Amino acid sequence: MSTDLRVPDPAGRLQGLPPVLAPHTRLIVLGSFPSVASLAAGQYYAHPRNQFWPILSALWGVDLRAQPYAERLDEVRRRGLGIWDVYAACKREGSLDSAIESPELNDLASLRERASQLVAVAHNGGESARAMRHTRALGVPVLRLPSTSPANASWSFERKLAAWRDVFERCGIA
């Protein structure tokens, strides 16, 4: 495995990011696989037009984008949210989910052990939701959220925020 997340491994596969979890994580949001910008930065949702951080900021009344990344992750963990992706590795040119080839699933079954207070799993977008059959095996509600990707332009920010707020409120982390 390559130690530089921006460089494919010898098989030409890109490697994803580690999970952001705490033992008291109540909800985990699963994306598909980090964008080129996220891999280059070594940060989840690093593309400046991705609405993940603005949505969390609006839900929690904290401007997470103004904080250093490590502090954002501290806030996420403190509030009981986890972040990860369904794919650990894949081949892909660019950032579009439709370009993902030969994906390798993360060890999603380990989420119950890693986050013993988990009450739900939410898939961030359609490609992530393709792994629902794996996350349903965790025995908690599995939900599909509208993608925060800039490619999901058919949903307004306000409409995405309302959908995310509903899930966060049901999980007790709004």
What is the highest CATH level, the class? Alpha Beta
- Radius of gyration, whole Å: 15 Å
In spatial order, strands of the major sheet run 3-2-6-7
Q: How many structurally independent domains?
A: 1
Q: Return the average pLDDT rounded to an integer.
A: 93
Output the CATH topology: Uracil-DNA Glycosylase, subunit E
Query: Number of helical runs?
Result: 7
Question: In percent terms, what proportion of residues is strand?
Answer: 15-25%
Main sheet specs: 4 strands, parallel
- Order of helical and strand elements: EEHHHEEEHEHHEH
In the predicted model, the low-confidence regions spanning at least 5 consecutive residues are 1-5
- Distance between the first and last residues' Cα: 37 Å
The rough form would be described as globular
CATH architecture: 3-Layer(aba) Sandwich
Structural class: alpha/beta
Full CATH superfamily name: Uracil-DNA glycosylase-like domain
Number of strands: 7
Amount of helix: 25-40%
How would you sum up this structure, described in words?
It is a single chain. With 174 residues, the protein is α/β, with parallel strands linked by helices. 39% of the residues are buried. The chain has a single domain, classed as Uracil-DNA glycosylase-like domain (Uracil-DNA Glycosylase, subunit E), CATH 3.40.470. It has helices at residues 36-41, 52-60, 69-78, 111-114, 126-129, 132-135, 157-170, and strands at 14-15, 27-31, 81-85, 87-91, 101-105, 120-124, 142-145. Residues 1-5 have low confidence and may be disordered. A four-stranded parallel sheet has the order 3-2-6-7. A three-stranded antiparallel sheet has the order 1-4-5, with no helix packed on it. The protein is globular, with a radius of gyration of 15 Å.
